[in-house]
Specification:
FAD/NAD(P)-binding domain, flavoprotein, 502 residues, globular, 27% helix, 2 domains, 13 helices, single chain, six-stranded mixed β-sheet
Length: 502
């Protein structure tokens, strides 16, 4: 068994595999090590919907990426365009008045090239007809700047990237957890590892790329760094992202970077398992998400609305609203819909294991909800219904301006009275996907020391990179960020090892 490599990549998610592929393209010997077994590999990537946000100017930019460019629906599809200016505005909307960070500028500038590069590695994409478009006047209208997802969603992405890496001659070792970095003479020289049986060892390398996620699966770190109550959050993805890579880098003096109090969260079925479950088929793994709140109202245990459900397209609100649910009493809320919108709810609302209650009247529905102030809930819905302006047409393909009037907390778009039975209520909580705080990296993906110099031989990508997101993010940016910074880290590590060998 080979014991010395040019590059060891820690992790096997999208960012890790992007780094590994980029390094192999440069002819370097690359080993990927993964804490999980092969069946549970893929990091958080395997749990995602596979959507990627990137700059494009129209249909012609998207067609080369598609698995089926002959899909007959394409002839009546309006993808629109998603410019660098729109991407900039979307990111700034979550920055709490911060200017674009260097990392965000890189994400925008390299997003399309990164996705084209990924497609060149055999990863194919499909239009997200079921979740990102509505049919209007016989045409599919895409909204929110997000159009494509990888074939077979995140699980398919993880599989395709592993296949591409294998085709390039790369090797992956599973059940191989990184425990610490090995250094010599101020340079990273390898990684200490341990398998599930407790057997320890050292793998020598000229460079190490840390791509093993944030700290979202570590309840203690969530409480300490994000805040009280976050220890109770459901973890949408892998249980293995315990902050190990961040801890290893910090022990070498790496510079903390980004917003450690921030995270990507999303509304989830209240009865979601504590961690994601890759044992389920990929179509079942996604059913716990509940992100159609924009079609109804959300009430907390006090029976009150607590967010403007129609503030923006759900691509731009679900990460923040997942956090908002965590801040409610008991970390719980109810999404309430009437029959007018039932056909518009995503498939996870109709999944056989989706939890909800149903009744022919609002009174009967609210009476079935445990732990809610029933009188206040009915009063809240009555006030909401009275405030809806019916003169504005409802149109889910645009921010339609159909709003409430006179409420302290408005609903700014897609407001319809909750009045047509039968009615449904879905109990939800907050599920955490990934954290925002990490380490600082340079233009080559090298991890920066607190003294302002790169740590020789140490690189990072994916959730490890701080400064990409702050108080939320536009949906689909996370996977794109993984490719952008993974590709950089892999190429940077390859260039470093080439110089070291000269």
């Amino acid at each position: 068994m080979q014991t010395s490599w040019d590059i060891v990549v820690v992790g096997s998610g999208n960012a890790a595999m992007s780094a590994a592929i980029a390094a192999r393209e440069q002819g370097r010997s690359v080993l990927v090590i993964e804490k999980a077994t092969e069946e549970l590999a893929g990091g958080n990537t395997a749990y995602t919907a596979g959507a990627m946000r990137f700059v494009y100017n129209g249909n012609d930019d998207l067609l080369p990426l598609l698995a089926d460019p002959d899909d007959p629906r394409l002839a009546r599809t309006d993808f629109g365009a998603y410019t660098a200016e729109r991407f900039t505005a979307d990111l700034l909307g979550f920055n709490d008045r911060r200017p674009l960070s260097r990392e965000q500028q890189t994400l925008i500038a390299e997003s399309y090239d990164a996705v084209r590069w990924l497609a060149s590695q055999g990863v194919k994409f499909e239009p997200i007809y079921s979740r990102q478009s509505f049919e209007k006047d016989g045409r599919f209208i895409f909204w929110g700047g997000l159009t494509l997802a990888t074939h077979n969603e995140g699980f398919g992405l993880a599989e395709a990237e592993r296949a591409a890496f294998a085709a390039l001659g790369g090797e992956i070792r599973y059940d191989c957890a990184a425990t610490d970095l090995v250094t010599e003479g101020g340079r990273v020289r390898g990684i200490r590892v341990r398998n599930g049986a407790g057997e320890a060892g050292v793998i020598a390398a000229k460079a190490v790329v840390l791509a093993c996620g944030g700290f979202e699966s570590n309840a203690q770190m969530r409480r300490e760094l994000i805040g009280p109550g976050w220890e109770a959050a459901k973890v949408r993805g892998t249980p293995y992202n315990q902050g190990d890579g961040i801890a290893m880098a910090l022990r070498l003096g790496a510079k903390r970077h980004g917003f450690y109090g921030g995270c990507h969260a999303t509304p989830m079925d209240l009865h979601t398992p504590d961690y994601g479950n890759l044992d389920l088929p990929h179509l079942e793994r996604k059913h716990y998400r509940k992100i159609c709140y924009f079609l109804g109202v959300m009430l907390n245990a006090r029976g009150e609305r607590f967010v403007d459900e129609g503030r923006d397209f759900r691509n731009y609100t679900y990460a923040q609203f997942g956090r908002a649910i965590m801040e409610q009493p008991g970390h719980v809320a109810w999404q309430i819909f009437d029959a007018k919108v039932d056909h518009l709810l995503y498939s996870e609302y109709r999944f056989h294991d989706a939890h909800f209650v149903e009744a022919d009247t609002l009174e009967a529905l609210i009476d079935k909800l445990d732990g809610i102030d029933k009188a206040q809930a009915l009063a809240t819905i009555a006030q909401f219904n009275a405030a809806v302006d019916p003169a504005v047409p409802f149109d889910p393909t645009v921010k339609d301006g159909r709003a409430t009037k006179g409420l302290a907390l408005p609903k700014s778009n897609w407001a319809q009275a909750i009045e047509t039975g039968p009615f449904k209520a879905y109990p939800v909580t907050g599920g955490i996907t990934f954290t925002y705080g990490g380490v600082e990296v340079d233009e080559a993906g090298g991890v920066m020391h607190e003294n302002g110099s790169p740590i020789p031989g140490l690189y990072a990508c994916g959730e490890m990179v701080g400064g990409v997101f702050f108080n939320g993010y536009p949906g689909g940016s996370g996977l794109t960020s993984g490719v952008v910074f993974g590709r950089r880290a892999g190429a940077g590590a390859a260039a470093w090892t080439a110089r070291a060998a000269a």
